[in-house]
Specification:
Blueprint lengths: L3 H6 L8 E6 L9 H6 L3 H5 L1 E2 L8 E7 L5 E16 L4 E8 L10 E4 L8 E3 H4 L4 E5 L16 E3 H9 L3 H7 L2 E9 L5 E6 L4 H12 L5 H10 L7 E10 L4 H15 L10
Parallel strand pairs: 1-3
Antiparallel strand pairs: 1-7, 2-5, 3-4, 4-5, 4-6, 6-8, 9-12, 10-11, 10-12
Helix pairs in contact: 5-7, 6-7
């Protein structure tokens, strides 16, 4: 089978002394690399490391797909200077994306059955184990709207959907009212809200994508206390879908029902 490193080298790139970054979800830190790739913040996250993990010439970056042996190739980065930031307790790397691989970035799916925890691998030892499984026609992107019963979005993905004005999601969400829940993945606390009138849920969730708190005083205080980046812990889902023409009184009554059912006043972020 074709090796990823051989495919990369056909573009004339000499990888030199390189490392392979196998990016996986980290529940402790909230690092979700695929979500960040969709929202164009993967490079920001990759550049900040707890240790000096990139003592090399280049970094070949892979993102795990669904906790499987499949990985998405998202680029090669040339390593520049590194500085220690004591306030944040991380090493900040200057990583410059290598040009000439745009036709492969986000398109090559790699088969690599990594059975160990290490995420920063020496290229000379593991490079030959990265086999090309498939090459997508288009770079991997956010999937089309999956149906109302399957909506489960991280804040990063919601931000990307709104920023891209994704037509599949916009069409679905702009034509419904209903009740939603925002879950804090760090604490388990929940916030129950509702959307009605206008362009329905799309308009309401657009406000969250812009500010993180959507104007809710409880969530605004939370982000004020913990910093705006705390919104990356939020997860959005639907608990009840209603007709876009339903009255505000009816939607609010359903919102109150779900606050009672989920105990989001007693053990969440709803204070009324």
């Amino acid at each position: 089978m074709l090796k990823l490193v051989d495919l990369v080298r056909t573009s004339g790139l000499d990888l030199g002394h390189y490392k392979i970054h196998c990016a996986v979800d980290d529940r402790r830190s909230g690092w979700r690399p695929l979500d960040q790739y969709y929202s164009d913040t993967f490079e920001w996250g990759q550049a900040r490391q707890n240790s000096e993990n990139f003592k090399c010439d280049n970094v070949l970056s892979l993102i795990n797909l669904s906790n499987s042996r499949k990985w998405l190739f998202v680029g090669v980065y040339c390593v520049g200077d590194v500085t220690w930031e004591p306030r944040n307790k991380w090493f900040l790397y200057e990583l410059e994306r290598v040009k000439g691989l745009e036709h492969l970035d986000g398109r090559v799916v790699v088969d690599f059955p990594k059975m160990f925890r290490a995420s920063y691998l020496r290229g000379e030892k593991y490079g030959d184990h990265l086999l090309v499984d498939s090459i997508r026609e288009e770079p991997m992107s956010i999937a089309d709207f999956p149906g109302f019963n399957s909506v489960l979005l991280s804040f990063e993905i919601l931000y990307s959907i709104i920023r891209q004005d994704n037509p599949s999601w916009r069409t679905a969400l702009a034509n419904i009212a209903g009740v939603y829940v925002i879950s804090d993945r760090a604490t388990g606390y929940q916030y129950v809200g509702s959307a009605y009138g206008g362009v329905g849920l799309w308009q309401r969730w657009s406000e969250y994508a812009k500010t993180g708190h959507g104007g809710n005083k409880e969530l605004r205080k939370l982000l004020h206390d913990k910093g705006p980046e705390y919104a990356n812990n939020f997860q959005f889902s639907l608990v009840e879908v209603c007709d876009i023409n339903a009255s505000a009184d009816y939607i609010i009554s359903r919102e109150s029902h779900w606050k009672d059912a989920l105990l989001s006043r007693e053990f969440g972020y709803n204070y009324n």
